[in-house]
Request: fold
Amino acid sequence: MKSLFAAALSAAALLALAAPAAGRAATPAEPARPAAAAAAAALKPFASEGDFRRAMARLVKPGANRRHSPPPPAPDAPAAPAQSAQAPITLSSNALESITVTGSRIESPSIESPSADTITNVQTQGVDEGDIVKKQGDHLIVLRRGRLFVLDTGGDRLRAVSSIDAFAPGSDPADTWYDEMLVADGTVVVIGYSYGRGGTEIGLFDLQADGGLRYRATYQLRSSDYYSARNYASRLIGKTLIFYAPMSLDDYEAEQPGAHLPALRHWRPGATPADFRRILPATAIYASPGQLDPGDVALHAVTQCELGGPRMRCRSAAVLGPDSRTFYVSEDAVYVWTSRDPDPDRPGQPNAAVFRMPLDGRPPSALRASGAPVDQMSFLQRDGWLNVLVGNDAEGEAMWASRTRTGDLALLRVRLSEFGDGRGIARRAAYRPLPQANVYDYDLHARFIGDWLVFGFGGYWGDKDDVDVKRAYALRYARREPPSVLRLRHAVERVDALGQDAILIGTDRDDEEQVGTRALHFTSVRLGAAPRVAGHYLQTDAVQGDDRSHGFFYRPEDADNGLLGLPVIGAGDADGGNARVLFLRNRRLNLSAAGALAAGAGAARRRDDGCVVSCVDWYGDARPIFAGTRVYALLGYELVEGRRDGGRIVERRRVDFSPRAKVAP
Reply:
C-alpha cells in the first residue's frame, strides 16, 4: 500500500496540487498555494442567500449514501423551543482568562482543594466537557436514562435529594437520547438528540440551594446526529455553552433553505416547525476551495449559547466539507477536520481540510492537508502551533468511525499563522512520518501529555493474529527526535495522564490462554529524557467497564503520588453484573492496589426503573469521583462512598437513588 503521506510529502505531488479539478469547488477554482502565502487571509463567507443556493444546486445530490449509519433505534425524548434570532455573542474576557492552557497536560484538583468542582477527565483544563455526572458545591448531579438526580454530599451527608425528568414537562420524549450534561453557576444543561424532531435538544434546569431541580426551558437546534463513540458534543467555558452539530444536506431544497439549515426554537406546548428561527445566515457559512465534492457535502456548525441571561442567546457559524469529520475544542477555537477518500487517479492531492473557528467571533480560517485524525485526543493546540496525529486510512470520528484502521501515521505540526483562506497546503516539512504499526484493523489510542505525544494500538477487529501490538510510542512533538518504543505486556486500550507522566491500560489475548480469562494491565510510563516503562499492575478477571475518556480519573496528591480510579467489570461478564470502580495508588510511578468500590449484590439483577427514554447507557453508567478528600464510585443507580483503611479504599456507605427499588424476578 502506497502511503498517502509518501505522496503528500513529495515535491512532485505538491506541484500537482496547483490546479484543483474543475467543478469541485463551491467557489471559482483557484490555484492552490503554500500555506505561508495564504496565511494572511481568512475564509470568505457566502455573499448572499442566493450565492449559497446556487452552490447547493451544484453540490447536493438528494438521497446520496452517507458514510456513517446512526446508532440502533432508540426509545424517547422531548421537543424543543422557539425564539427569534438573537444578536451574536462572544466569549467574555473573564471566561478566556479563566482557562489554563495545558493541552492535555491534565491538572486534576488536588486533594488539598476540597472546594474544586472538577470531577471530569477533560482534555484541556478550563474547557469542561459534557458527561453523566457533575459537581456543583456540595451536590452531585447525575444524568441517567432520561432523568436527572441530585445527591447531597455536604458536611458528612450522603443522601438522594431530588430527581426530575430530563425533558420538558408536557413534551413527547419519543425517539430522543439525553446523553450529556454540564453545570454552570446553578444552571444544569442537558444535551440530547431527537430523531423524531431531527435536532439537538438543550434542556435547562435550575439547581436550587437545597438540591431541588426546577425545569426552566427547552431549546432545540435543527441538526443531524452528533454522536461519536469517543467524543462529546458539548463544551463549557465560563457560562458559554459550545457545541458541535453537523447538518446533512442530502435533502436540501433551494426553495426552502430555512427548512434544512440550523435554526433554533424555544419549546412550548403546541410548538410547531414554524417556530424555528434561523441562527445561521448564509453570510456565516464558509467553504474551503477545492474541498467540496457533489454528493458528499455536510454543513459542520459550531454554536455558542450564552447561559447567563433569562433567555438563552445563541449564534452559529458553519463550514462546508465532506461528511467525514473530527472536531476538537481548544481554549480559544474549535477545529473541524473534514476529509474525503483519496482520489487514486490524483496522487498527492490533499484529501482533507482543517478549519479553525475562533470563539471570539472572528471568521474561520483553513488549511488543506492529508489524512485524518481518529478523535479529539489526536489534537493539541499549544504555543502558537497545532499538532495533529493523522492516518491515511482514518475516516474521522462520526458514530463508530474512530474504531477502524488508521493506516500509515504521521504527526502534522503547523503554526496557527499558516491558517488562511483555505488555499494553503500544509508544507512537506510539516509532516513527520511515524512507525507504521496500524495497517490492520486495530484501534488507535493517543494523547498529548505535557511535551509528549503517546500512542498505541488495541481493540483488534480483524483476522490477523501475527501482528504485534504490545508496544507503544512516545515522542516530543515539538522536536525532530526518533520516537521511543515502549515494550509492553498488553495491547493499548487507553492512554491517559498521571500528572506529567503517562499510563497505558489494556488487555492481552494471551492471558485467556494462560489463565482462562482476560486480565487488565496498567503500565506507567515516565516521560523524561528517555521515556521508559516505570511500573506495572495486573488486575485478573477484569476489562474496562468504560473505554471513553471520562471513565478514568486521576487525583494527584503531589508531583509524584496520587490515586487513580477506573470502572471495571469481570472479563466474562458482558452485562456488567460485577461492576466496580478499581482504585490504584501511584507512588513515583509504582502502581499498587488501593481497593475497589463495587455495585450492590442486587445491582446485578435487572430493576424496573420505569425508564421511558434513553434506556441504553451509551456514555456508560460508572465513574470514579474525587471530591476534595472524599472518594466515591458512581455505579448505575448507586453512589458508594469510600474511606481510607490504611493504604486502601474500602466502602464506608452507599445510597441507592433508583427511581424504583423493585427487583425484576
